[in-house]
Amino acid sequence: QVQLVESGGGLVQPGGSLRLSCAASGSGFSIGVMGWYRQAPGKERELVATITAGGSTNYAESLKGRFTCSRDNAKNTVYLQMSSLKPEDTAVYYCKAEYRYSFSSLIRNSWGQGTQVTVSL
User: Fold this and answer.
1) Are the CB atoms for 112 and 1 separated by under 8 Å?
2) Dist CA 78 CA 100 (whole Å)
């Protein structure tokens, strides 16, 4: 299995910045699109950003300009740089990756356990 582990969450003041990291571990796999999702209390999980292996990104329209997604393929790690944070950004942030094993053509998905981001005074 491919395991995703997020880090970097925590408490930050409005207007502050935070950088999340998500590292994929395992062997014999290749990672395709990776992404970040978030889920606030009482709300559905929503897309934050996705990034292809080649570095092409897509963002939720409301987050463009504040959030930046990047990746380091050599480290199998994806990042989410968050700036100008607002209280409404408070949510559990989840990392997702599409991957396949070297011996299989089946595309699989892996989800991280989530990391809490709280934006509050």
Assistant:
1) no
2) 17
Residue 15, amino acid? G
Ordered per-residue pLDDT tens for the chain, 121 residues: 899 999 999 999 999 999 999 999 999 999 999 999 999 999 999 999 999 999 999 999 999 899 999 999 999 999 999 999 999 999 999 999 999 999 999 999 999 999 999 999 9
* CA–CA gap between residue 56 and residue 76 (Å, rounded): 16
Q: Across the chain, where does the E strand assignment appear?
A: 3-7, 10-12, 18-25, 29-39, 46-51, 57-59, 67-72, 77-82, 91-101, 108-111, 115-119
- Work out the end-to-end distance of the chain between its first and last CA atoms, rounded to an integer number of angstroms: 39
